[in-house]
């Protein structure tokens, strides 16, 4: 087999019929592909053919050709040959040129290579061309990467920026220009950046000096939309984004620089790796077994977390897990102080487990420790929601990115445990719940006892003192038989001595 190429992106393949062949020759099978492709393009040719021309080959690419004879049983052993097409200058420009960071004297840029078909060979380097919009003098910076930081710029100045790709044959066309304005020296350094990324939200943060006071709000611009933030705020969660999509965010302050760009960051939202929600299975003794969802791909996954959200009035503002501050939630761990506090404050969302891989099922509330997170028993008659969140490795970075990327599942259906209170709570919870109840019961018993004692004392005071029936009868008999006034007075006003004498008389 002989292959000859031309500058017209074609290759002519020529061959001769096999000298030795088992069975009747039915035709030929020709397959070819670039070395960076996975599948071959396959052609079936008649037995009378002895050549074929392949068109629309890429310039500066390496191809593999396979030719085999075919009989009634199928294709035989293939003859393999590899060729390279000649290079040329790129016919396409670099794509998606954008600003990813700004200071008073620098601008950080990123872009992507030209389309594969338009590269016409291996890209050896890039040239960034930039100039002050008020000056016609171009400046250039060369790099072999797809990112570059332009240094030595003037503060509060707008620059026009373009980039072009080079092969060994020369330069390709310049990309469409973008404009970028450096920060002003009058404005404090904000350190505008990304704190956390989910599939539909991005948490943006920035810093302000301690003595910075401004009544003017900040404005965040992205994808032809804008959001205002109060001047004393240092973070903003941008929601309702699309999964696995590039976004560029610009922070501006209208109060200090009219229309001036302050800082800019670019980010790609997380892919939607967990499309289904956890499914509840059965509950028993303060526990609930759930079926965990499947993950689309585990290539970028570092860890899995199972998050439990008690259904309260404050928690209902989160319509989906992407609206929560997942970065803050995953950094929290419950200690002894928090354990006491939770009975006073409303219940909050918590991490039940951290897992290296995702099992098929998981039991909520088994009171075990999972890599530093306690899977607390579920409270009786309290409704819960749960979801799974995967922490992803950041793609396209050098490993120093200081933000976290999450891909979370939807909320589960409401979970509710109905069981005996003693079974649904652990010992500390029982003490906190039963202690106040027992105290109230003891106080009620003491109050009842005091009331009964007082009532008894009042009855004693109201009843007459008992008298000696016998002495009373003697006194009445003497009064009835005596007519002497002196004797009657003596009987009415007796002295102790008289009483003793009277008792002797009775005897």
Automatic annotation (TrEMBL):
Keyword Zinc-finger recorded: no
Membrane-spanning parts: 430-453
Region (Disordered): 461-480
Superkingdom as given in the UniProt entry: Eukaryota
Fibronectin type-III domain residues: 1-88, 93-185, 188-272
Pfam families linked to this entry: fn3
Keywords from the UniProt entry: Disulfide bond, Membrane, Transmembrane, Transmembrane helix
Stated name of the protein: Fibronectin type-III domain-containing protein
């Amino acid at each position: 087999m002989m292959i000859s190429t031309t500058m017209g992106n074609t290759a002519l393949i020529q061959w001769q019929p096999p000298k030795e062949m088992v069975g009747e020759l039915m035709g030929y099978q020709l397959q070819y592909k670039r070395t960076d492709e996975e599948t071959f393009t396959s052609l079936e040719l008649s037995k009378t053919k002895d050549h074929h021309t392949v068109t629309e080959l890429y310039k500066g690419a390496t191809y593999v050709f396979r030719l085999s004879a075919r009989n009634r049983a199928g294709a035989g052993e293939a003859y393999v040959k590899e060729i390279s097409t000649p290079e040329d200058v790129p016919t396409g420009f670099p794509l998606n040129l954008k600003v990813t960071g700004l200071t008073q004297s620098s601008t950080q840029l990123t872009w992507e290579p030209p389309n594969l078909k338009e590269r016409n060979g291996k890209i050896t380097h890039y040239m960034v061309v930039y100039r002050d919009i008020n000056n016609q003098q171009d400046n250039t910076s060369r790099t072999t990467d797809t990112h570059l930081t332009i240094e030595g710029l003037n503060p509060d100045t707008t620059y026009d920026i373009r980039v072009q790709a080079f092969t060994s044959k020369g330069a390709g066309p310049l990309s469409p220009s973008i404009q970028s304005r450096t920060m002003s020296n009058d404005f404090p350094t904000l350190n505008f950046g990304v704190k956390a990324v989910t599939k539909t939200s991005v948490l943006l943060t920035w810093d302000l000096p301690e003595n910075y006071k401004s009544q003017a709000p900040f404005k965040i611009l992205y994808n032809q939309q804008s959001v205002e933030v109060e001047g004393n705020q240092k973070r903003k969660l941008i929601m309702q984004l699309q999964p696995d999509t590039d976004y560029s965010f610009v922070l501006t302050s209208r109060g200090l620089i009219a229309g001036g760009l302050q800082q800019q960051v670019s980010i790609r939202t997380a892919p939607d790796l967990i499309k289904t929600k956890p499914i509840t299975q059965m509950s028993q003794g303060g526990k609930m077994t759930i079926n965990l969802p499947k993950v689309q791909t585990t290539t970028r996954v570092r860890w899995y977390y199972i998050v439990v959200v008690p259904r309260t009035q404050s928690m209902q503002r989160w319509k989906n897990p992407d609206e929560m501050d997942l970065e803050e939630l995953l950094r929290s761990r419950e200690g002894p102080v928090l354990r006491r506090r939770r009975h006073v404050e409303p219940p909050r969302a918590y991490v039940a487990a951290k897992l290296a891989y995702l099992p098929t099922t998981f039991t909520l509330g088994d009171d075990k420790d999972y890599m530093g997170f306690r899977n607390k028993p579920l409270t009786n008659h309290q409704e819960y929601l749960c979801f799974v969140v995967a922490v992803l490795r950041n793609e396209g970075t050098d490993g120093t990115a200081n933000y976290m990327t999450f891909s979370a599942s939807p909320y589960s259906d409401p979970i509710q445990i109905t069981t005996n209170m003693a079974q649904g709570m652990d010992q500390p919870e029982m003490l906190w719940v039963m202690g106040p109840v027992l105290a109230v019961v003891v106080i009620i018993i003491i109050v009842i006892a005091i009331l009964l004692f007082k009532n008894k004392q009042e009855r004693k005071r109201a009843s007459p003192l008992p008298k000696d029936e016998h002495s009373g009868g003697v006194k009445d008999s003497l009064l009835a038989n005596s007519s002497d006034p002196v004797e009657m007075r003596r009987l009415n006003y007796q002295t102790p001595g008289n009483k003793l004498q009277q008792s002797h008389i009775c005897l």
